[in-house]
Amino acid sequence: MKWTDIIGHKDQVAMLCHMESSERMPHSVLFAGPKGVGKSMVAKVLGAALLCSNQKDRPCGVCHSCQQMSYGSHPDFLFIAPDGANIKIEQIRTLQQEVSMAPFISQRRVCIIDGAELMTTQAANSLLKVLEDPPGEIVFILIAANRQMLLPTIISRCMIISFQTLDDHVLAQALMAKGHLPQPSEVAARLSGGRLGIALAMLEPEGLALRNQALEIMENVMEAKMEILWHRAALLEKMERDEILQIIKYITYILRDILLLVTGQGRQLLFNIDIVEDLGELADKWNEKQLVRAIKAVEAARRALQANANTRLTSEALLIKIVDLAKEV
Ligand SMILES: [Zn+2]
C-alpha cells in the first residue's frame, strides 16, 4: 500500500502527499467524486502515511504501523462504512468513544468514513460535533460519491478534494499492468466510464454477464421471436431493479455502438470492442433513424424504472417498442 500503487489522480496524490509530508494536514478532508474511481484506495494510503513511523517517504510499508495497516488491524485506524443502507448514530457514538482515547502506537488517529453521504441525520449531527471539536490528534477522511447529500455544515468543516473518472487509456494501461489481457482491459476501461472499481469487477469471471444478456436481448429483438421476448421480460421481472437498470444501460451502449458503425464513425470510439462482429451483424439491420428512436425509447424506460415504474410492464413495453422500430423499413 504505497502512493505509487494509486492509478491516476496525479494532482490529488501530489497535493495530499505534500500536505502529509510537510505536516500540514487539515483535521478533516472530504474526498468527493464518482463511485468506483479509487477514492477509498487513496484514503487508505493517506491513512497509512499519516500513521507511519518512518521519518520520510511515508507510508514506508515496513514499519510496525504500516504492517498493522496491511493486516487491517491498526489500533489507531478506524474505518466506518454504511451498515445496510445507512451509517447509523450507533456507529458514530462508537467512533466518539474510540477517538476520545489517546493513540496506541502512532502519533495520531485516522478515521475514514466511506459513504459519508449515507449518514442518517442523527449520525451526521453527531459527527458534526466531533468535527467542530476534534479530540486530540486525529484526521477524518470523509468519502462521498454524492456530496450534495451531506450537511452543508459538515462540508464547510472539510477541505474538499475532488476526484474525477480516469481517462480510458490510462485505466486500460493500468489494468494491463495488473496482468489483465489487452482486449478485456480496453473493454472494461471503456464500459466502466473510467471507474477502476467497476472495471475490475467487469474483469471477474461473469463480470460482463449483464452486458451479454443485453446483447442477447438485442439479437432476440431482431429475430422478433415474441415468445422468447416474453420469457425475457419474465426473467427481467425476477431481477433486482439495479440489475435491470444495468442491462438497460448496456442496451443503450450497444445501440450507441451500432449507431457508430451505421454512421461510419470509426471503430476506435466503440465501447464493446470484444463483440464487434455481433454488432456488425446487427448494424446491417438498422438505420440511423431507427437507432436514434430506439435509444430514446430505452432512455425513457430507464427513467420510468428509476421512478419506480412496474418492471414487468416497463420491460415488455420497451421490448415491443424496439421490435416495432426494428420492423420499420
Ligand atoms: Zn511505515
In short:
This protein is α/β, with parallel strands linked by helices and 329 residues long. The protein contains 15 helices and 5 strands.
Notes on the protein architecture:
There is one protein chain. The chain is of the alpha/beta class and 329 residues long. The chain has three domains: 3-162, 3-Layer(aba) Sandwich (Rossmann fold); 172-202, no CATH class; 209-327, Zinc Finger, Delta Prime, domain 3, CATH 1.20.272.10. It is 55% helix and 8% strand. It contains 15 helices and five strands. Helix 7 (168-177) crosses helix 8 and helix 12 packs antiparallel against helix 14 (288-306). The longest helix is centred in the last third of the chain and has 22 residues, at 241-262. The protein is elongated and about 70 Å long. The protein starts with 9 loop residues before the first helix and ends with a helix. Zinc ion (ZN) is lined by residues 52-54, 58-60, 63, 65-66.
Helix-strand layout with pairing:
Elements: H1 10-21, E1 28-32, H2 39-51, H3 64-71, E2 77-80, H4 89-99, E3 109-114, H5 121-132, E4 138-144, H6 152-155, E5 159-162, H7 168-177, H8 182-191, H9 196-202, H10 209-223, H11 226-238, H12 241-262, H13 276-283, H14 288-306, H15 311-327
Parallel strand pairs: 1-4, 1-5, 2-3, 3-4
Zinc ion binds at residues 52-54, 58-60, 63, 65-66.
